[in-house]
UniProtKB/TrEMBL annotation:
It comes from Shimia isoporae. The lineage of its organism: Bacteria, Pseudomonadati, Pseudomonadota, Alphaproteobacteria, Rhodobacterales. InterPro entries: ATPase_inh_sub_z, ATPase_inh_sub_z_sf. Pfam families: ATPaseInh_sub_z (PF07345). This is DUF1476 domain-containing protein.
Amino acid sequence: MEGPVNMSTFEEREAAFEAKFAADEQKMFVARMRRNRFMAVWASAKKGETVEQARAFGRELIKKDLQEVGDDDVIEAVMSYLGDLTSEDVVRRKLDEMMAEAKYQMVQED
């Protein structure tokens, strides 16, 4: 028969879980910001713009993403930026590709 649950063990596990959750959330935040910069470079290249213009648009995308939860605001911003140079389906696929690349790069850096 098992004895009573040791509360300090439970609290240690809870603290470890919370720390892992916070670290995972931080990694996801960094990946999203990196993804947004990649999207800005891609969009600016489609328009034939300079690196500085890509950086400026990247800052705009990051700001947009911080204002609202989800990807719709980023997709809307890219669509507005590119106008008839692309479609929403292409932007959504590119967003997924760029997120995968951002995560891959982060894993390689660890």
